[in-house]
């Protein structure tokens, strides 16, 4: 899906730049999330895929579904996407917009997968350590995976820290097979 992200990047950056300049990041994130949910619907996808409809008709259909939730600037953004036959990229544009917003706000979602439940004190200490390492505020989501045997796997964006027993065994197996 690298192609989709490449195509979506300029639109996400443009929307982010506009929203940032107008100090309206949260509202734009909400509008883009709404649009992404709408274009993910099978019936709407059929409308977007229909060669019988013009880009103006597609925009009219999408904005009618949204009602009053879109600003005039956001409707213009949807029109631009439609003119360039890029409405199907709205989900990817939204993901990239949210990522740019998180980077700007120095905020990061971190997923911690552990073999056992993580108590609140350990979670707080981990949050502090990750905040220092990543230089941002972190929001930790913990899950339990009994297959890890022991240890944890931490995912923060592209960063993965695998200190699980299963991960260490896999590395050892790989090293021994070489």
TrEMBL record:
Gene3D superfamilies for this protein: N-terminal domain of the delta subunit of the F1F0-ATP synthase (1.10.520.20)
Record-level Gene Ontology MF annotations: proton-transporting ATP synthase activity, rotational mechanism
First-listed, main subcellular location of the protein, grouped into a coarse class: membrane
Domain of life: Bacteria
Annotated localization: Cell membrane; Membrane
UniProt keywords, alphabetically: ATP synthesis, Cell membrane, CF(1), Hydrogen ion transport, Ion transport, Membrane, Transport
Recorded GO CC terms: plasma membrane; proton-transporting ATP synthase complex
Pfam families linked: OSCP
Membrane topology category: Peripheral membrane protein
Protein role: This protein is part of the stalk that links CF(0) to CF(1). It either transmits conformational changes from CF(0) to CF(1) or is implicated in proton conduction.
PANTHER family: ATP SYNTHASE DELTA CHAIN
HAMAP family: ATP_synth_delta_bact
Family per similarity comment: Belongs to the ATPase delta chain family.
Name of the protein: ATP synthase subunit delta
Originating gene: atpH
